Amino acid sequence: MFNGNNNKEITLHQNFMIQALKQAELAYDSGEIPVGAIIVKEGRIIGKGYNQTEMLKDPTAHAEMLAISSACATLNNKYLEDCTLYVTLEPCPMCAGAIVWSKIHRVVFGAMDAKSGACGSLFNIASNNKLNHRAEIIQGVLELDSQFLLKQFFASKR
């Protein structure tokens, strides 16, 4: 459930999530599972990505991983401190690990992933107290929009 503190924060998160959804639509149009991600620092998008595992024949080409690589290149730094990752689907364990290693401050996601989510549903890697870095997690921003795109994609595959 989205737990924004005030209306201004809610609107900000929704506006950036719309940009992540646009990335998910690019994945959908490419025949990929429609997940999109952006990374924001100081109100500016510094990284983008959408699932490209089929196109690149690379199981690590998740939206979050590509957005993290893009943002690191933009900042010329391996750490993304004070950055927020917006992603349409809850990150998996691989992506949650990358969130921890890159020191992303906050993760905002749309739909939960009961089968492989690692930011609160199945696992809690990105904000685990036993790790050296913990990200703030906000879930449920434009959740229905994210779920709709995923359901539409999988329905077309049946």
What does the secondary structure layout of this molecule look like, with pairings?
Elements (H helix, E strand, L loop, with lengths): L6 H23 L6 E6 L2 E7 L2 H4 L6 H13 L7 E7 L3 H10 L3 E6 L24 E4 L3 H15 L1
Write structural notes for this entry.
The mean pLDDT is 94. A five-stranded mixed β-sheet has the order 2-1-3-4-5. The radius of gyration is 14 Å and the shape is globular. It has 158 residues and is α/β, with parallel strands linked by helices. It has helices at residues 7-29, 53-56, 63-75, 93-102, 143-157, and strands spanning 36-41, 44-50, 83-89, 106-111, 136-139. Helix 4 (93-102) links the parallel strand 3 and strand 4 (106-111). It has five helices and five strands; from the N terminus they run H-E-E-H-H-E-H-E-E-H. Helix 1 runs parallel beside helix 5.
Summary tags:
158 residues, alpha/beta
- Which band does the percent of strand residues land in? 15-25%
Q: Helical proportion?
A: 40-55%
The overall pLDDT average reads 94
Basic shape: globular
Number of strands: 5
The count of helical stretches stands at: 5
Largest sheet: 5 strands, mixed
Strand order of the largest sheet: 2-1-3-4-5
Class based on secondary structure composition and strand pairing = alpha/beta
Order of SSEs: HEEHHEHEEH
Please tell me how large the radius of gyration is: 14 Å
Question: Low-confidence stretches at least 5 residues in length (pLDDT < 50)?
Answer: none
- Oligomeric grouping of the chains: single chain
End-to-end separation in angstroms reads 30 Å
